[in-house]
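Customer escalation, tier 2.

The customer says the design service returned an amino acid string that "doesn't look like it belongs to this structure." They asked us to rerun it and document both sides in this ticket. The original structure tokens are below, unchanged.
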């Protein structure tokens, strides 16, 4: 009796198997891509969101997951075992401990700079820099262990010591006596002034620009020769799942396109 059922040739079986695997891959959405986690200082929020989008566009299949916060908080998370590919800090003080603990791959590179400004409530009691020392003024600064907080206190010392300004050696003490709140990051400082919870604060010029878009505040520039220049370093981390990808992101930040985006958001050259 004739049997119409014949064994499938091995080559045909392989073709069928390959077709089935391709069907499953398409049905499940294919390769979900790669995620690069980037931890960055809160003052970099707008700039790094745009840089992240530009990097994704230039690197198909890669998603940049951004985690913003005070540089000291992010550094602490890394010391406690948090995993990420890149860390962009607002100062080198947060980088040094990570280097000592061998949590960094390679050396840090400066990628941006920033300066400080005073912001105040429009129609509030602070109408100039000396006004920070007026009795009863409600002042907010970032915590002293936060880069912006450390820079702010350096600035007050420089202002008090400058004889040309004539603010007097007591200026620093009088201003700090008006301190009613210390915040974990510079964005919180700006937000408290915008909401009218305090009269004035000291923030980066980049945060002042973002704050002006949210509320009615006045920005006071500081004498360039007395201002503190904040240097922002960026590093690839030992915990990076893909160090080559992390390094590519660092190089993008340092590239002409990355620097252009940073400049658009008010950051200076490194």
């Amino acid at each position: 009796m004739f049997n119409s059922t014949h064994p499938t040739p091995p080559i045909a079986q392989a073709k069928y198997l390959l077709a089935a695997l391709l069907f499953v891959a398409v049905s499940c959405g294919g390769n979900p891509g790669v995620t690069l986690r980037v931890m960055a200082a809160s003052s970099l929020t707008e700039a790094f969101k745009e840089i992240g989008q530009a990097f994704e566009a230039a690197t198909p299949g890669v998603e940049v997951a951004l985690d913003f916060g005070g540089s000291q908080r992010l550094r602490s998370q890394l010391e406690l075992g948090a995993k990420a590919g890149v860390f962009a800090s607002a100062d080198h003080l947060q980088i040094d401990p990570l280097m000592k603990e061998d949590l960094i791959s390679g050396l840090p590179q400066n990628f941006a700079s920033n300066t400080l400004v005073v912001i105040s409530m429009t129609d509030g009691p602070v109408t100039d820099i000396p006004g920070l020392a007026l009795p009863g003024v409600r002042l907010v600064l970032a915590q002293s262990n936060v880069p912006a907080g450390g820079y702010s206190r350096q600035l007050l010392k420089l202002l008090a010591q400058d004889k040309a300004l004539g603010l007097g050696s007591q200026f620093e003490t009088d201003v700090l006596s008006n301190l009613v709140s210390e915040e974990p990051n510079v964005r919180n400082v700006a937000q408290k002034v915008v909401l009218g919870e305090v009269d004035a604060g000291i923030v980066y010029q980049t945060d002042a620009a973002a704050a002006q878009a949210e509320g009615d505040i006045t920005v006071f520039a500081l004498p360039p020769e007395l201002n503190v220049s904040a240097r922002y370093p960026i590093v690839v981390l030992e915990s990076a799942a893909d160090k080559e990808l992390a390094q590519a992101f660092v190089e993008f930040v340092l590239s002409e396109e990355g620097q252009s985006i940073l400049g658009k958001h008010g950051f200076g050259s490194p």
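Tier 2 assessment: The sequence is consistent with the input. The domain at 116-220 is CATH 3.40.190.10 (D-Maltodextrin-Binding Protein; domain 2). The CA atoms of residues 49 and 122 lie 29 Å apart. Sent an explanation to the customer and offered a walkthrough call.
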